[in-house]
Amino acid sequence: FEKLCSISLSHINVYACLVCGKYFQGRGLKSHAYIHSVQLSHHVFLNLHTLKFYCLPDNYEIIDSSLEDITYVLKPTFTAQHIAHLDKQAKLSRAYDGTTYLPGIVGLNNIKANDYANAVLQALSNVPPLRNYFLEEENYRRIQRPPGDIMFLLVQRFGELMRKLWNPRNFKAHVSPHEMLQAVVLCSKKNFQITKQGDGVEFLSWFLNALHAALGGTKRKKKSEWGEVLGGLSGAVVPLLSPCCPP
After folding, report:
1. What beta strand segments (E) does the chain contain?
2. Could you list the residue ranges that cross the membrane (predicted)?
3. CA-CA distance, 111 to 186, in Å (whole number)?
């Protein structure tokens, strides 16, 4: 879910309660996380930005290697070597709930009426050049955008979703696209929504153009590695989304 406090709705200094899964702001005296720990005796919290664990209300950091699986699920990372071998292995992974799945071939939750967007996102997640680019955050983390520009949020959220889809250590064999879709609603100025159906091909066209612009592209589509990746995507993905094509 979106990383904001369930009480203050703030994005600043948010902690996840590892007992009930709710998000709370702060960990100091009288903070929402502190009060939650006292009232419900829930004591272990994860800072969603620093990925550090704390015990509340005593307010000390917990250092325990057994918690690393949780931080990896929240923020999976991929090495260049791992990415290079993704298409050469078909090893099933076992989720924490006991189900098996193939990384990259996992379901996206249907929140309300977002299946049209899910189909596009899943198709794009299996286009190797695009997948490889977004699995390695270093490729775009330092791109400079104008102050107040919100479109780069699409890039960040799509990268996060891509890494979760290809995570070999997921807790479940499905992934929530909630944060990604919230970015779509915001950046498209509600032209594409979660609550009503949209056209998959229209969403694909808008999404690729928005990614291209957010990554520093221009309407002239000057030649670049990123531009070449985008150039062949529409022709490759649109047939997969056409209702006249068999699945």
Report:
1. 14-17, 23-25, 44-47, 53-55, 60-62, 93-94, 100-101, 107-108, 174-175
2. none
3. 17
Torsion angle of C-alpha atoms 156, 177, 180, 128, degrees rounded to 10 = 50
* CATH entry, 77-241, from 1.10.287.70, 2.40.10.10, 3.40.30.10, 3.90.70.10: 3.90.70.10
Closest CA to 154 of 135, 190, 182: 182
Could you tell me which residues come within 8 angstroms of residue 32 by beta carbon, excluding any fewer than 6 positions away?
A: 5, 6, 7, 8, 24, 25, 26
Domain range annotation of the chain: 14-71, 77-241
Question: Can you give the C-alpha Rg of the chain in angstroms?
Answer: 19
**pLDDT value of residue 228:** 59
**What is the C-alpha to C-alpha distance for residues 190 and 202, in angstroms, rounded to an integer?**
14
Task: Give yes or no on whether 14-71 and 77-241 have one common fold.
Answer: no
The torsion angle over the Cα atoms of residues 166, 216, 48 and 19, rounded to 10 degrees, is -40
Listed residue (122, 105, 112, 127) closest to 203, CA to CA: 122
Alpha-carbon gap, residue 180 to 164, rounded angstroms:
11
| pTM, rounded to two decimals | 0.81
* Domain 14-71, CATH class in plain words: alpha beta
Mean pLDDT of the chain: 86
Residue 26 tokens, joined: 């702060």
Res. 227: pLDDT tops 80:
no
